[in-house]
Amino acid sequence: MTTPHPILRQAQGPAHTRMYAVGATRGSRAVPNAELAPAIDSSDEWIRQRTGIITRARADADTGAVDLATGAAREAIEKSGVASHLIDLVIVATISNTRQTPSIAAVIADRVGANPAAAYDSNAACAGYVYGIAQADALIRAGAAHYALVVGAEKLSDLVDPTDRSISFLLGDGAGAAVLGPSDFPGVSATVWGSDGSKAAAIAMNHTLVEFRDGVSEWPTLRQEGQTVFRWAVWDMAKVAQRALDAAGITSADLAAFIPHQANMRIIDEFAKQLKLPESVIIARDIATTGNTSAASIPLATHRLLAEHPELSGGLALQIGFGAGLVFGAQVVVLP
Amino acid sequence: MASSTDDVLAGMAELIHDETGIATDAVALDKSFTDDLDIDSISMMTIIVNVEDKFDVKIPDEAVKDLKTVGDAVSYIIKAQG
């Protein structure tokens, strides 16, 4: 077929990508259960037993999600060995940017020396980081970018109600970041991802900003239907995790680590049980002292795992995020 | 085929024991999951999912909220089995 115009050149990238390095920043204050328990008529023991959380990291009033993101990004870039000006894609996964525009991504791209990288925020809640890795991998292999910075950043303490017994006491603040780029070997597997908006109410803000503005509601905060979320997070997500292993062409015996979203220790324990992971697989349990940090939880947990178990470097990790939407995403990565 | 009340009760007692360590003979039809057996919401959901497997029934989340006692659950399972 002849066309009335010259043939367009389309981008094409490298065959493979991998994660080069991760970085992490946690809220500076370790908030113990005892500080939160009175407002929900609870106790340190009750919270530990039901969530496995001992302390959660929370940021001070002057620190925003954008600042946490900047710290994590700087560490990841420095450790990656990639010059910051070569990063031409910045994706920030977040649900807690209280300034809706500009994006955190554009601001931190400039702060870390990656200006004028393509930059945007994405909202996929606790699956946001996995979504970000999927996008970075795809965009690099498609030739749309060369090096990518993916950050999960949350200051969830701005979205909590101290008297809420459903989710608020789980939540913490932090950011985790990863740098991705071309690779000689496959370092990021196919991603299994999706959503189920029929369960949108299972984890949600209890009011809109408009209701707050009009004086008909309090400041919007997060709520969840615990039992519905628990069943979905364990049994439905165990199936998604298995599909991700199948898509990667591996079995759980090939894994070095399992890094689920750090929602609740009971979910992590039951999840691992359902997956029948071999004992050799190290399970990330960062939630005990960080709390649930939504989009930041997987990279924060990865960062801790690599610090505590440097031998995991080069091994395979199954990471799975799941949360408000509902949305989910899972993939296998080669740990940096 | 529908099971008998005794069969379902015995099966539930086993699943409750597996999840919580509560002795099987402490599980009776009139016991409340929360007030008598002190089963929290996460354990309750684990038991429900295992009940679904064992008795081949579906118990939706909305129905779980109404199951206050072991007897409520046993009746629900027998009815769901048709």
Walk me through the structure.
The complex is a heterodimer of chains A (336) and B (82). Chain A has 336 residues and is α/β, with parallel strands linked by helices. Helix content of chain A is 31%, strand content 25%. Chain A contains ten helices and 14 strands. In chain A, a hairpin with a 3-residue loop joins strand 13 (316-323) and strand 14 (327-334). The radius of gyration of chain A is 20 Å and the shape is globular. Chain A starts with 15 loop residues before the first strand and ends with a strand. The mean pLDDT of chain A is 96. Chain B is mostly helical. Chain B has one domain (5-81): ACP-like (Non-ribosomal Peptide Synthetase Peptidyl Carrier Protein, Chain A, Orthogonal Bundle), CATH 1.10.1200. Helices cover 57% and strands 0% of the residues of chain B. Chain B has helices spanning 5-20, 41-55, 61-64, 70-81. The mean pLDDT of chain B is 91. Chains A and B meet through helix 7 and helix 8 of A and helix 2 of B.
Largest beta-sheet characterization of chain A? 5 strands, mixed
| CATH fold-level topology of the largest domain in chain A | Peroxisomal Thiolase, Chain A, domain 1
* Whole-angstrom Rg of chain A: 20 Å
Whole-number total of structural domains of chain A = 2
* CATH class call of the largest domain in chain A: Alpha Beta
Kindly report the oligomeric state of this protein: heterodimer
Spans of chain B of at least 5 consecutive residues whose pLDDT stays below 50 are none
The CATH superfamily of the largest domain in chain A is identified as Thiolase/Chalcone synthase
Largest interface: A-B, 14 and 11 residues
Average residue pLDDT of chain A: 96
Mean pLDDT of chain B: 91
The largest sheet of chain B is: none
